[in-house]
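From the methods appendix. Each design record in this collection lists the tokenized structure first, followed by the designed amino acid sequence. Records were kept in a plain field format so they could be parsed without special tools. The example shown here is representative of the layout used throughout.

RECORD:
FOLD TOKENS (82 positions):
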């Protein structure tokens, strides 16, 4: 068929609070549509930066941009790393 448009159906309650995040866990990064592992939380006076890693590539995202990854997303992420 023709081109398909991906609809962003996320709602505010899909996003995880800083206290809910665990280092080493796999999350979905909103806006980037990536699944990645949380390496660490880094704080400054005003907010937190979250250090993420996706198959060896390190990047940072702002607090409030992570969502719980589905079981399928986690499984696919782990398969890609093997």
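DESIGN:
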């Amino acid at each position: 068929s023709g081109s398909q448009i991906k609809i962003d159906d996320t709602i505010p309650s899909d996003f995880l609070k800083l206290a809910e995040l665990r280092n080493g866990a796999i999350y979905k990064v909103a806006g980037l549509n990536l699944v990645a592992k949380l390496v660490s939380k880094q704080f400054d006076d005003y907010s937190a930066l979250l250090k993420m890693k996706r198959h060896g590539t390190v990047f940072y995202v702002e607090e409030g941009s992570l969502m719980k990854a589905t079981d399928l997303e986690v499984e696919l992420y782990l398969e890609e790393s093997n």
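APPENDIX NOTE: The helical segments are 71-80.
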